[in-house]
Amino acid sequence: MARFAVILPAAGASSRFQDKHYKKPFAPLAGRAVWLHSLHRFSQREDVIQIIVAVAPDDREDFLSRFSADITLLGVQVVEGGRERADSVHNALRHVKSDAEFVCVHDAARPCLSELWIDAVFQKAQQTGAAILAVPVTATLKRVDQSGVIVATQPREELWEAQTPQVFRRDWLLEAYEKRGGFPATDDAQLVERLGKKVHVVPGSSLNIKITTRDDLKLAEEILKVLPKPKGLGPIHPFAGDDLWR
């Protein structure tokens, strides 16, 4: 059985979330923090040997205090994130166990994940070395200039919207980050692509949303009701309703 390490970046500023009390990975969703929904999708898998969460340095103390029970019970490793998402992943990569053959990167703020999707992208990564969840673009895309005027309608054929999890051979992802330099990557696949490696797409789902605004929490709560619950999901922590960021 292949062995996977999972990295959950949770160090972003959450500027678009616009909540003075919470950053989006730590906001309450259906009785527990958003990032815990993401975590529990991986924590009971036999092929996952390590889970690393990257949080902002300013949040680390409160995060460790607030989620100490979950961190201890599930053996989660907490590292400091960086200024950009790629910096956080790079910092976490330095702590990945040497016996992990693959590294999975999943947005901590993407809580509506099905185990079937994880199975599919893990299997494809084992077969090919690199795989991500993605969905085909169905909307009409417009290219707009700075004044707000449409300058072109972009063909949507062959266009896919990248999601997470994104899963790679550990050595490929390490090399990709070592050669990153200052490249402003918006996802990990982009860095692996720069190595000349083929990254394969596994069809995801429009239900696999990323929390960006507070309204997304309402949608996510409804999506969670129709997704199968992860195996071994225990009772909600007795302090789950506490307000971490007040």
TrEMBL record:
What's the protein called, per UniProt?
A: 2-C-methyl-D-erythritol 4-phosphate cytidylyltransferase
- Residues at the site labelled Positions MEP for the nucleophilic attack: 156, 210
Q: Which GO MF terms are attached to this record?
A: 2-C-methyl-D-erythritol 4-phosphate cytidylyltransferase activity
Instruction: Please report which protein family the annotation says this sequence is part of.
Output: Belongs to the IspD/TarI cytidylyltransferase family. IspD subfamily.
Describe its function: Catalyzes the formation of 4-diphosphocytidyl-2-C-methyl-D-erythritol from CTP and 2-C-methyl-D-erythritol 4-phosphate (MEP).
Give a yes or no for keyword Transferase in this entry: yes
Name the keywords, alphabetized.
Isoprene biosynthesis, Nucleotidyltransferase, Transferase
EC number(s)?
2.7.7.60
Lineage of origin: Bacteria, Pseudomonadati, Planctomycetota, Planctomycetia, Pirellulales
